[in-house]
Amino acid sequence: MNLIDGKAIAGRINEETGRKVALMKKHGITPGLAVVLVGEDPPSVAYVRNKDRISQQLGLYSRRIELDQSTTQKELLAVVDRLNADPDVHGILVQSPPPPQIDESEIVKALNPAKDVDGLHPLNVAKLAMGDPTALVPCTPLGCQKLLVESGITIEGKHAVILGRSMLVGKSLALLLMRKGQHGDATVTVAHSRSLNLTKILLSADIIISAIGKAGYLRGEQVREGAVVLDVGTSRVEDPSTRSGYRLAGDVAFDEVAAKAQAITPVPGGVGPMTIAMLMVNTVAACQNQTGFSV
Amino acid sequence: MNLIDGKAIAGRINEETGRKVALMKKHGITPGLAVVLVGEDPPSVAYVRNKDRISQQLGLYSRRIELDQSTTQKELLAVVDRLNADPDVHGILVQSPPPPQIDESEIVKALNPAKDVDGLHPLNVAKLAMGDPTALVPCTPLGCQKLLVESGITIEGKHAVILGRSMLVGKSLALLLMRKGQHGDATVTVAHSRSLNLTKILLSADIIISAIGKAGYLRGEQVREGAVVLDVGTSRVEDPSTRSGYRLAGDVAFDEVAAKAQAITPVPGGVGPMTIAMLMVNTVAACQNQTGFSV
Q: So what's the pLDDT on residue A294?
């Protein structure tokens, strides 16, 4: 069994991004990322800090915009409009989930699609669905694909079974892996909470990617010998032995599945670090598209 | 084995559409469909005539616009703009394929998404991908779903394997069948020309929909006893016994597969008639959305 070290792979990708950014800066171009946080949801605060920290480490121009919990839809739209128009900002991310008074899908639609580094604007969704290589693709699916590629795992022609059908992960990953061409061309199955005979389907998978958020859901008996397993799930489970009283758990019953898998990601340290690394990659790509300068 | 009679089912749907149209007309609203044909490609000429004939039969306002083979992109865009602005036209369809000087994807993007009864405008693609029930969905996938429903075949939870990954059929149908809720909630696999171990995957299918356009491709040994098989493929194969010298053939080796299937569509007379019936359904729905009048 090969443990796929997402942290190490993300580290290498970040280094490469840092080198690109340094080269772009020599030509007077600094990729800029704006992250907008509304309210004080503790995990969101942590995510936003992390994104800010890494973008600064890689030399990007990073703008963190923290808005009050009571921010209105109109106020947030005004912030988005300003960022859309700001030439120093090439990528915009509005941290999810926003407070309940915010209509998130309207905010996403208001983004300049060229700056939509989360890949959730309808025009980017449509591009991905239509197989257009200029789509900005959501970071987690992109990170899953990259993990497979960097681990030397062939995607083309293989049967990938994806658990979960969110746009943010499951469906986007399905469209990405079935896209024609290199690192695509997979046979893709999307399964979910309503799927019958799931074990039978999982046993035919060469690659399983689980993104349902149920701790320990995928069991060893559902995975065939030699499959590759990526675990996107992160649930908080109580753990009195930790300082915080909980720990992060993946969807995969790790020990059981690891005993059968050819390769597997841990949680934490698997897909997670890749998501932020791909956000940086998307921001640099968005900057290159907007400035017409590529390295 | 149950032969799914697409012609009869389409006939019933058309009758229902006709009743709706009659009722709308009593309230002064006539759903209007414009079909634009560029050039004289014989199958396209036949399709357009057919669409025109059926929309007239059902009482829709039908406008057939036939443009010269040498029509430029600019001229076609001007036609689309006029139709977008025309309040008598609720649905617009530009017959595919256009001549080579036309950039089809630009034409589709120029359509008013609310009038895009073919469901190929990026905003409709995105809506379908995001599971938005207000999406206008391409007619052939919609027809496949309807055939299953009308034949009393449960979709929810079942494993549907789709052969082919075009936006027009395969991918749209995948997104449609995996959508949350009634007549969705399937486990969906998309397979294609690059898929390995296809037979094994097909044998796990409860429902197979083939849309690859290779005559007789799907063999009996690839279908499990009791599966449901929809055949979207239409290829012309030479047949000296016919007047035209050819006949239409589906993707399915019919006799072999029919011997195992619980239910199966023939070619012709299966999915084909449903496509036009769903075009009429989409046009009426588009009219209802645009006028705010629904029956």
A: 84
The C-alpha angle A194, A200, A201, rounded to 5 degrees, equals 65
Active-site annotation holds for B95: yes
The C-alpha atoms of residue B32 and residue B40 are separated, in whole angstroms, by: 24
Domain definitions of chain A by residue range: 28-112, 139-272
CB-CB neighbors (< 8 A) of A125 in chain B: 125-126, 129-130
The rounded mean pLDDT for chain A is 97
Crossing angle of helices B139-150 and B6-26, rounded to 10°? 110
If one looks up domain A28-112 in CATH, what number appears? 3.40.50.10860
- Residues of chain A found within 8 Å of residue B127, distances taken between Cβ atoms: 122
ipTM of the complex: 0.96
For B67-88, how does the pLDDT look when each residue is reduced to its tens digit (9 = 90+)? 999 999 999 999 999 999 999 9
pLDDT for the residue numbered B94: 97
CATH no. for B28-113: 3.40.50.10860
Examine domains A28-112 and A139-272 and report if their fold is the same: yes
CATH classification code of A139-272: 3.40.50.720
Whether A214 is catalytic is no
Q: Does B127 touch chain A (CB under 8 A)?
A: yes
Q: With b meaning 16 or more CB within 10 Å and e meaning fewer, what string describes B41-72?
A: beebeebbeebbebbeebbbbbbbbebeeebe
CATH topology of domain B139-273: Rossmann fold (3.40.50)
Segment B38-50, tens digit of pLDDT: 999 998 999 999 9
The type of residue at B138 is: P
**Residue ranges of B 217-256 with Cβ closer than 8 A to chain A:** none
Contacts of B175 in chain A (CB under 8 A): 129, 171
Q: Which of A57-61, B42-46, B152-156, B159-163 has the lowest mean pLDDT?
A: B42-46
Q: Which of B103, B104, B125, B198 is best to mutate for the A interface (most A CBs within 10 A)?
A: B125
